[in-house]
Amino acid sequence: MSGRIPQHFIDELVARADIVELIGSRVALKKHGKEYKACCPFHGEKTPSFTVVPDKQFYHCFGCGAHGTALGFLMEHDHLSFVEAVEDLAARVGLDVPREDHGAARAASPTDGLFAMLEKAAELYRKELKGSARAKDYFKSRGLTGDTATRFGLGFAPDAWDFLIRTTGQSEKDRQTLLSVGLIIERERKPGSNASPGHYDRFRDRVMFPIRDARGRTIGFGGRVLDKGEPKYLNSPETELFHKGRELYGLYEARQASRTLTRLLVVEGYMDVVRLHQAGITYAVATLGTATTPEHLSRVFRICSELIFCFDGDRAGRAAAWRALENSLSQIRDGRQIRFLFLPDGHDPDSLVGEEGREAFESRLDRAISLSEYFLSHLSSQVDVSTVDGRARLAELARPLLEKIPAGVYRELLAEEVAKLVRLDAARLSAALTRDADRAAPKTAPQPVFRPKLAPISTGRGSLVRQAIRILVHHPMAATHVRAAPEDLLDIERPGIPLLVELLNDLQENPCPHTAALLERWRGRPDFEPLAKLARDEYPVDASGAARELTDALNHLFPERAERRVEELVRKKSREGLTDAERAELQSFLTKAAVTGNAAGQRT
Known about the structure:
It is a single chain. The protein is an alpha+beta fold. The chain contains 24 helices and 16 strands. The radius of gyration is 32 Å and the shape is globular. It starts with 6 loop residues before the first helix and ends with a helix.
C-alpha cells in the first residue's frame, strides 16, 4: 500500500520505541550513569565513544560524529530506506503503518496488481487443499495439524497445466501479471511461427508454501512434490517482488509469534520451519533454495543479536555450514552471536523435533558451537598442525577470512586464537599476514575524520536565537511554557529566527516528548542536520530549568523586536506621517519603555 505516512504516526512510533533496546540488539551496550556506552558500530575503535541517551531517545559518537534517532540508526546501520525503517520499527512495537490518501483516490502502484494476483493464487491453492484428500493426507503424515496449515496458509496446486490460467488468466493483462510474478511459464515458440506460443502453470501437483514479506503479503511460493519427482522443491523465480537472496521463509510468522525475538534459527526446508513452529520453536526460518547471503544476515541482525544455523551432520550439510560461515564474516560485530548446530545422521529438524520434542531440541540449540569454535576446528582439520608447513598453511587459510571480519574486538580475539594454533605471537602473526597486503596497497594519506565544530553557547545577544533553538532541541516541551506569540519575533533580522518561530509554533500546537520525536518531524528538510548536531551537545539542565532559560532568552529577543518597530515608526513619521493605528502603536511602545525605565531607575 502506498501513500504518505502521517506525521502523527511517526510521533507515536518514536514515542513508543526504546532506542536502548533497539541498539542493544546489535551493539553491546554498557550502562554509564543515565546513558549507555559502546564501541561505535560505524567506525573501528577500542575505547567506547558511542553514547545512547534514553531521555532524548538519541545516539551519538564523539569519535566519528555519527548521530540520530531509532529510525536514523536503522537507516544508517541496517541500510534501510526511511519507509523500511518505519515498517521495521512499527513491527517491533506492534503497530500497523497507516497511509494518508488526502481524501482522494490513491493512484495505483505498479506493484498493487502483482500483490493482488499472488494473494488470489494463494487463496485458490488453499481452497484446493481443502478438497484434496491426497494433499491433506500428506500433511497429516508429516505430523502437521489443521491449525498449523492455516497459520502458514498452506495449499495445493492441482495436477493441471492450466489451473491458474483458467481461473485467473482469462485476459491478456491477467496472463502478463501471472507471468510477471512467476506463476506461469511461456511456452517455447515453434520455429517459423508467429502464433502466440501460449502458457502453462509453473506449479503442478505440489503442496504449496506461500512466502510472505515483512508485512504479511504473499511475494512468492515454494512447492513440494507429493510423490517422487524432480525437483523435489520448486521455488518462484526472481521477480520484482521476490528476491531469494533477501527473503527468509517463516520470518513473518516468527515476528507474529513474538514481537521481541531474541534469536533466530536458520534451517534448510519449508517443512522444517513449519514443523518447528508447530512444536513451539517459533523463531525458525529458512533460506529459499539458496545459500545464506550477507543480506539475509543483515536482515536477521536488524531483529535480534543471536543466530543459530542448523544443518544435517553429513558432508553436504557441513559444506553448506562452511558457506554460511564464510558469508557471515562480514556481518560479525561485537555483541552479535552466531552458532552452528549439526544434527545426528539420518535426521533433519522436522524429523528430530517430532521424535524428541521441543525441550530436547532446544537443549541441543543451547549446546550449539560458536562461530569461532567452528572456524578454528574446520581450518585445523584441513592441515597437519603438528608440522611447520601445516601451521603456515593454516595461517594462510585464515588470513582472507579474518580480513572479511570488520575491525574490532571480535576480530582481534579470533586472530589471537589462530596465533595460538600456529604457535606464533599474535603481533608477529598479524605483521606477517598484513605485510604483503601493505606492499600491494596504494600509498594514500589517511583521511582525517570530519568532526563538525559548533560555536559555544553563551548568554550574549549574538547567540540568543541559537540558545533558544538548542533548548527546544533538548527539551521540546519547554515550548508549551511560552506565552508570547512567536510570530512577533519575525520582525527581528537575525539568522535562525524563521526556524525558531516555526519550532515554537509547531511544538505549541503539537507537543512532543523528547529530542528524537522533534528531529523526526524535520527529517528530509534542510534544518534537520543542524538540529541533530545541536542534539549531540551536552545540556545538563532539567525540564523546569530549560523552561526558565527559554523564557529568559525570548524575553531578551522580544524587546529587540519592539526597538526595531519603534525605529521603523519614527522614520515613517518623519517621512510621511502615521495612520491613527500606527500612532497608537508607537505611543504604546513609548509608554512601556518609560514604565520600564522608571522601574529600572527605582531598582538602582
